[in-house]
UniProtKB/TrEMBL annotation:
The lineage of its organism: Eukaryota, Viridiplantae, Streptophyta, Embryophyta, Tracheophyta. It holds the Pfam family Lipase_GDSL. This is Kinesin-like protein. It comes from Vitis vinifera. Residues 3-333 form the Kinesin motor domain. Keywords: ATP-binding, Coiled coil, Microtubule, Motor protein, Nucleotide-binding. Residues 333-360 are annotated as: Disordered. Signal peptide: none annotated. PANTHER family: CENTROMERE PROTEIN E, KINESIN-LIKE PROTEIN. PROSITE patterns: KINESIN_MOTOR_1 (PS00411), KINESIN_MOTOR_2 (PS50067). ATP binds at G86, Q87, T88, G89, A90, G91, K92, T93. Belongs to the 'GDSL' lipolytic enzyme family. Residues 411-445 form a coiled coil.
Amino acid sequence: MSHITVCARFRPLSSKERRDHGDSVSVQSLDSETFIFKDEKEEDFTFSFDRVFYQGSEQVDVYEFLALPIVRDAVNAINGTIITYGQTGAGKTYSMEGPSILECDQQKKGLLPRVVDGLFQCIKSSDEATKYTIKLSMVEIYMEKVRDLFDLLKDNIQIKESKVHGILLSGVTEVSILDSTEALHSLSRGIANRAVGETQMNMASSRSHCVYIFTVQQEFPKDKRIRTGKLILVDLAGSEKVEKTGAEGKLLDEAKTINKSLSALGNVINALTCSPQGRANHIPYRDSKLTRILQDALGGNSRTALLCCCSPSPSNASESLSTLRFGARAKHIKASPRVSHNDDKYTKKHGTQSPSKDGSCERILNKLTEKLDIEDVNLLEELFILEGIFSYPNSVEDLELTLEDVALRTISSLQEALEELTLIVEELKIENKALKFRLAAAERVDTLNKKAGGNTSFLHKFNFPAVFNFGDSNSDTGGLVAGIGDRLDPPNGQIFFKRPAGRFCDGRLIIDFLMDAMDLPFLNPYLDSIGAPTFRKGCNFAAAGSTVLPASANAVSPFSFGIQVAQFMRFKIRVLQLLEKGRKFQKYIPQEDSFQKGLYMFDIGQNDLAGAFYSKSLDQILASIPTILVEFETGIQELYDQGARNFWIHNTGPLGCLTQNIAKFGTDPSKLDELGCVSGHNQAARLFNLQLQALCKKFQGQHPDAKVIHVDIYTIKYNLIANYSRYGFEHPLMACCGYGGLPLNYDSRVPCGKTKVVNGTEITAKGCSDSTEYVNWDGIHYSEAANQNG
Ligand SMILES: Nc1ncnc2c1ncn2[C@@H]1O[C@H](COP(=O)(O)OP(=O)(O)OP(=O)(O)O)[C@@H](O)[C@H]1O
């Protein structure tokens, strides 16, 4: 059992402290471990720590005493934790990072860069045959939420406990680091992200706890054995008292949360030190995220060092005193880091190391033969060998003790097995869900095939050189965002692209899956000119909010169907001009015959109908359908005239099942159908689709050299909503990314990912924890999981 290493560090006086109290300090050094501290009432307190770093101490002294032994251990698969504690401005970050991670002279470098160097040096000087990998994660705990500093979208990381690996941060980003320079760049990236988070959350880093996790994995090529050591560094939030900060409102909440987690830390330390054995019945690790993450460090499975950072100035005496008291209390925790083979139990009971197997083995078993059946003795011998117990019992009492040990080991291995089983069950659940999706997708393809008169094979059979797409947000891959310079915010795009990708979705759209099915790359939007996008395999003219009819002045998108067709004309003209200029453009543009051999896809009309409901009666809307379709026909005829021959036309989806429409038009239950969708909207969509289908037939009849496929997306989507649980969904109508909670989680004033002030309160439309459970993404668009089924 070793104690936690506790050190105190006094930073130099700040200029303000000098102004207020001159050179006077509250600390009087006795030696390198002991000092006298004078509080505000001039009362003296003597403190002893493992080491005291006074004002003139160097960063390297702190590293070598406090961190180096832990770094060496981490490389030998023993976990270690280094914590800096103290009031704001006491020198925690200076000790941890130094003045700057990347640009800083050797002398001022903090613990982190030194730890990184130390890890790589230890690896260099170790056995060459052993293969090492180092991974780094960085998280920040703010207001009891753990956010990933390498992926700000992961802003609520869950803490899990595994019997084998201890405390784990589920799904946290782990960055592989190959050398010190790379590690420092990653650290600096994480620290910069911390600043981004600070601004986003209107906070200061001193109000969050920052946790750096280095995982060092050793692989022994001889026997393929793997060992892992984890080194955690924690820069705690400032420990000052709430009253002193004069905090109010959100600041007060923050201060209380910090205080709560720091006092939870204090409670854990008290619980760990309150019984004579250093063990209390219940250790309240679960009371805060901080103590949960530090559970292994404090509870024994880690070498731990605590650096209590203090101001030496009398003006901060009371804060420094409380920091020092915290350190003194922590000094009494005992920790026993886990090593590969642990003889603790035997040592505890016998006060010595276990005797060797040789010699005593025969003697003990002979003795047992006198008391037990020989078969039982043989069985016991076998069991001991199997269990790797090398201490042989020499009395029946000893035998009982040993059996107790076996039972304990069995229980712990059963617990491990249970843990593994739980993980397997989790994985199987996910796999099951994926299989359900695939099965459902296969069924959808089958239905689609039937609806399209056996024509989905059309997609596979033909080797389309390019695809030209026209439509609205259902197939917009970034057109509107590029065209009007708008911005989509996270969590849009979170599932597949890991960032907003121009799509009003958490991931891919139906068109992305169709492109995949045709072995073609995702379509670039015509309006996006940044980064020399390639249009070799086609071009997407779709823009969210677009209508078939010309856009009105206040329309979301000015790029109505007619404009999209005009854009196509220009696109074609430019392509032909560039092709004439020679080969150098070929990489970026379609070949000439692609315009005739390519596939022309359409998904538009939804906004003409949905938008009209805000100002027209159902009858008026139904009456306007032929006009919409005349405009559509004009567009596809123009494309035909330009050489288009392969037409893939989606009809419009069940508008009445979109969360937005239910929220606005479905407040009267008599207006809803049996699924809870708005009947009028769906009626309009169905009538539109019937007439669209007739148009497709007519167009096909007029152009026998063309291939016109009408795809019944309405039925596919409606079926998905009606049978949502069969397809692995939990919520058919509620939006994943929205505001307001049950039943619809939708507020038209706050689009997904945005924050708005409503009636004086700031509200944010956030994403749900698992979007694969939702058919609807943001109230208006389908989730990637639903699109995959589509
Ligand atoms: N040992 C030291 N030597 C020189 N300057 C120091 C030392 N320790 C701290 N400082 C300086 O004191 C100031 C406050 O230190 P620092 O930012 O590290 O405090 P902190 O405890 O991390 O505060 P917070 O909780 O707000 O993050 C900084 O300007 C830092 O450069």
